[in-house]
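Possible regression after last week's pipeline update?

I re-ran a chain I had predicted before the update to compare outputs. Posting the input and the new output here so someone can diff against the archived version. Not blocking, just want to make sure nothing changed silently.
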Amino acid sequence: MKYKLILIYFFIAFAVKAQHYPSFSQYIVNGLVINPAYAGRNDMLDLTLAHRRQWTGFDGAPVNTSFSANTPIKIKGIALGLSYMSDQIGTSNNQSFNFIYAYRIKLGKVKLSFGLQNGIMLQRTNWDKLRRNDKQDALIDGQAQSKTAFMSGAGFYLHGKNLFAGISLPYMVNTLNKNALKENPLLISTGYFIKLNDHHGLKPSVLVKMIPASPVQVDINLNYYYKKTCGFGISYRTGSSIVGIMEYGINKQFRIYYSYDYGITSLKNYNGGSHEILLRYYFGYSFNALNPRDFQ
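New output (post-update):
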């Protein structure tokens, strides 16, 4: 119990000091939450709903829900998007709303996109949720705080039929934190789809998360696909966990994704792992557009 309380206080302190950035195992298909330049990636309107419960059975562990929508518009080269994220950590809850703009240019067989996101974050911390021995503790009772901040981020995204590479600073401006640019993450992602034959393919990918004064975290992934309909994969997150990933296409427009994180640190003795489920729907389908099943 003492071990749990120490970690909960650590999460709360980190969330108050800076914008907490959650982990995502399905970052390839949930691209808009890590890089605004992802908007318009699949040349059609697509909606993504994701829910992640980290360290199940651990009181105060992070719970994250996100929703995003993005689409190209009739003005050549421009794509728009919206994103919402709710992140609960201990007694702290952050909700963010972002409007996203991306401008894309064609470079031979690939497209280069520059994206901007602007929005607000609503941060609420309620210390009353903490369990304490003395119910009359005046230092804790009534300590609910609410704050509102303006946020802004940017990113670049390069992609072709079978490859992608991106770099982003999702929260380089945060009016609640004067050191936002120094304390928030730089995210670098890249991957490539390898077609083995008409029915089989492999998709290696990497996500690097860099936060000053924190260890660099790297996700190394390898996914296998059968008939571009179902996929299975494994991921290693440095110093954290091993992740199993599954996805299935109900049809050409609707796909379901699930991942399970198994911790490799001593914390694994205090929780049941992390679960992440994601639903994605494409509005419209065109064989003339980039096939979303080839490489999301």
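Follow-up from reviewer: compared with the archived run. Residues 2-17 form the longest helix (16 residues). Marking as no regression found.
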